[in-house]
Amino acid sequence: MDLGLKDRVYVVTGATRGLGNAAARSLVADGAKVVVTGRDEKRAVAAAAELGPNAVGVGVDNADPAAAERLIGVARENFGGFDGVLISVGGPAPGFVADNTDEQWQTAFESVFLGAVRLARAAAGELEAGGVIGFVLSASVHEPLPGLTISNGLRPGLAGFAKSLADELGPRGIRVVGLLPSRIDTDRVRELDGMSADPEATRAANESRIPLRRYGTPEEFGRAAAFFLSPAASYLTGVMLPVDGGMRHGF
Prior knowledge:
By secondary structure, the chain is an alpha/beta fold. It is built from eight helices and seven strands; from the N terminus they run E-H-E-H-E-H-E-H-E-H-E-H-H-H-E.
């Protein structure tokens, strides 16, 4: 199936590793051109170099108020256009209610929530019909996850913002979509599993609750993200897609 991604230009944040990187790889593999971002300039440039000439790396923090304008400018300067953005950030600090400090909450809000809002708002002002704004969120949008209190607080709010944005931008032909990963086999998830007393038992218990009985791979997430961002998904907007092996049982 041709997704229609050839020569389309996307910004993918948080793409030096993990889910953002997997999405960038899938986009480039299907012919898109991608601006790869991350907080560390060297890692962003290296990640882009691995993807080849259709990728460019930029060191930027999503919490920086100037990030959105800069990234869209890089896309236009290097590739002559801007067709969409996938907003992905590293997960906020883990912890329970009593564990997380005001500083951790503030840092996460600036990066995970407000930074994403700024990027989406800037993209909305630049995109034309056929453009797309994607959010990498979390299964915590539908159900709180133990030990991830900050994520539980911020991700559902961002999903609500995305749904509102989809309503506002729909008449202009601009789509807004969200992906809700659960147990994908990334460094972040392995780190969270490793915080338990028995990481192997924790993973086995998690897998037993997943209908497919395994964690997903970053590549599987990346392919789902590429489809959602592509013209092939042109009638999908306001949608939150669980990428979880069937773990969510609600509709």
